[in-house]
Amino acid sequence: MHILMFPQYSYPSSHAMLETVFSRLLPARGHRVSWIMNARNGSAPTNAPVPWNDSSVYLVANGVRDGSVANPASIWLRILRRIRLAESIHRANHVDIIHVRNELSSGLIARYMRRRWGIPLVFQLSFPLSGKEELDSLARENAAKSKKGISITLKRRVQEGILKRADLVLAISEEMKAVLTRQGIPPDRLLAVPMGFDAQIQPDKYDPERVRKMFALGSSPVVLYFGALDRIRRIDFLFAAIEMVRLAIPDVKLLLLGSASDRSDESWLRSLTEARGLGNTVIFCGAVPRVDVPYFLSAASVSVSPIPPIPAYTVSSPTKVLESLGMGVPVVANEEIRDQKEILVESRGGRCVPYRERAFAEAIADLLAHPDLSREAGQRGREYVLRNRSYTCLSELIEREYLALQLQRRRVT
Fold this sequence. Notes:
By secondary structure, this protein is α/β, with parallel strands linked by helices.
């Protein structure tokens, strides 16, 4: 098959699933994958495709400068340009599937291509539709907020229109699939495709001393959090938990790997560590390339995934849980996030507890106090992930769905 991808991200993307499943694994299974992607600032659009692993990328101008907002005319102009490019790709090399990830303007392009050329549309959704409660609260704000509410309402309607006309909707989790079903998307056109783990990553290839020496960790047990440090993520939750852990294990270290989109959020977190007397316990490691994350996991005794149980997150598929278990590191996570609860319950790869500071502290301390049992949990987690949630498994699942759409299309025509 020839798959045309609209991935939402600029080229080259470091998104694990896009880079692994679509630019490597599907081409390795004999499929041709072409992308239409925005050129990053400083990169020029190209008339000929550029390579991305084993796939091809057509670069187009973003059309929006940093800090500026696109006007409707420029948006429609970019859509028309992408339509012409998509049609030229289809004429040159027949496209069998158009796959869009999240982005609404690309969804409109795919709807047009589906209507004119009969090409099946797959829409992959990683974020929930805006709920009525959110819109109601926005409507009660001031005029500027009301404009934002109108924008959200419009986007929601566009997204609903795309979802209802897509041949297949890929939800990020079973919980999101359930939400979309309640919102009227037929279950037979819904498939949960969560995040996964790259099975090529081997734990014994990563030396833990690289990170331990870098941050002078010595023999201290390490609790690792990796991900966004934005205030909405409530990382201060971990500070309260690690304070309790430190009562039982005084030399414990909490490593925070990542950054905040707003620097003031990270400054706020640093001030909290000082105020709580955690300056020698909590270590801010900054952001690193995705390929370096396994080094930090190799140095960790326990990985943590505390996710605030708000609607935007309850439908998520936390990559950090899978990447931790894939490296053989046990995980402590909260049970309100369905996807990570199912992973930990089924794999027995750690502890799944309520979103409460004491519950996290007790689970972390228990794993640190029993290293042999922790290693066994981590190993069970790795075996589970390789068996059920590797990107190889997910690429096979997506391929089967693509082929089913092709078979259905042939029957119709």
